[in-house]
Amino acid sequence: MSFSDLGLSNEIIRAVTERGYTTPTPIQMQAIPAVLSGSDLLAGAQTGTGKTASFTLPLLHRLSSDESVKSTSHGYSPIRALILTPTRELAAQVESSVLSYGKYLKLNTMVMFGGVSINPQKRQLRGRVDILVATPGRLLDHVQQGTVNLSHVEVLVLDEADRMLDMGFIRDIRRILALLPKQRQNLLFFATFSDKIKALATGLLDRPKMIEVARRNVTADTVTQKVYKVEREMKRQLLAHLIRRDDWYQVLVFTRTKYGADRLVKQLSQERIQALAIHGNKSQSARTHALAKFKNGSLQVLVATDIAARGLDISELPHVVNFDMPNVPEDYVHRIGRTGRAGASGEAVSLVSVDEYPLLTDIEKLIQQRLPVEVIAGFGDNSHTKPEVVPDERQQRIKGSKRPTRSTAEQSTPRTVTGGKKSDARPGASRRWAKRDR
Ligand code: AMP
């Protein structure tokens, strides 16, 4: 099957051909005809499957087939498509895909997110904007100031809707939905299905077509997974050792907290390993700068929290390191899905201290695989170290919560900060680990 078999216009086919795409990916084969038919869509697909093009291409086709420029009573030219994303980086990435696939069409695209001045965005909104890619918070700022008009939106896309719910955006999303015309096409993309997604889809979608492409196979031969058992205090030295020993030139490192990310960057820099961090407390320009350097190969180590790195598409990333193990097992799958893409080989390394053994057990259960374990002399077999509570930013927000599961994380509103709870200690964790045959 080719892109022209899917009924896309010549201008769009020309643009994708220039990008080197020859055949549509499985999500594209299914989603493109569904969107072109005007149906609502509920699609399960992770980053790396070609999901952005699966909604962007038919969206561009639909809007360009009817290019009549309408104007509203306020004199604005109407926004015809709204794409909401959870993070600034993903918004920028989606915008650049829309621009690239739509380069031969006469449609205007705009991206808006917080952390940058609002005034240039206001100016841009006074001109013609056909497609708006936005994060919910900044979009609502514009709504409040009366600088955006959403009353003519024909197509709504919620990209990575599950992550938007994880981040506590549900109320923002509902406020935005209330501003859209009733008659419209809705496309909802998620990476991991949950009851919250089901509830959102039920209220939003009208007889949707449902598509789910195979979850990225984390056991794919292209990703080598490895666990290093390590003393908690030795993680940084071990990471520096691995970077040097194996000449890692481009490595994405995940930490659990923003503070942990900053501290690691400082420590690596002291060891003369060039590193920068991206997370929610960094200014937008710092995030953009770090990501651009990392993508173009001039930054060796990028340290990120899960939320900041969500949806990032970094081609042929060779190494991913779990400096801290994720609390939610699915995040492991998302994290290591950054490497080993498109047939390129990749390596996913987890540095696991004794506190994190139960998290590793949960991950292995999810991926139905035992991960090979190595211990490097000098960095410690830590099975005798006493477990310690690992602080977790998300958990700190959930007063009285037990170990966070995906559903408790969703219930949280990430604006209230309460003291960290010690309920994560999970006595017996190390005993369970000791039984493992390693
Ligand atoms: P996404 O899942 O949207 O983040 O896309 C992942 C990567 O796949 C991006 O770098 C796209 O440029 C690339 N891509 C999307 N569709 C195709 C295709 N049909 N053939 C080859 N590469 C593609």
Can you describe this structure?
This protein has 438 residues and is of the alpha/beta class. Helices cover 38% and strands 14% of the residues. It contains 18 helices and 14 strands. Strands 3-4-2-5-6-1-7 form a seven-stranded parallel β-sheet, sandwiched between helices. Helix 2 (26-36) runs parallel beside helix 3, helix 6 (136-145) packs across helix 8 (170-177) and helix 14 crosses helix 15. Residues 21, 24-25, 28, 47-53, 313, 315 line the site of adenosine monophosphate.
List the SSEs and their pairings.
Layout: H1 10-18, H2 26-36, E1 41-44, H3 51-65, E2 81-84, H4 88-101, E3 109-112, H5 119-126, E4 131-134, H6 136-145, E5 155-158, H7 161-166, H8 170-177, E6 185-190, H9 195-204, E7 209-212, E8 223-229, H10 235-245, E9 251-254, H11 258-270, E10 275-278, H12 284-295, E11 301-304, H13 306-309, E12 319-322, H14 329-336, E13 346-352, H15 357-367, E14 373-374, H16 393-397, H17 406-411, H18 429-435
Parallel strand pairs: 1-6, 1-7, 2-4, 2-5, 3-4, 5-6, 8-13, 8-14, 9-11, 9-12, 10-11, 12-13
Helix pairs in contact: 2-3, 3-4, 6-8, 14-15
The structure holds adenosine monophosphate.
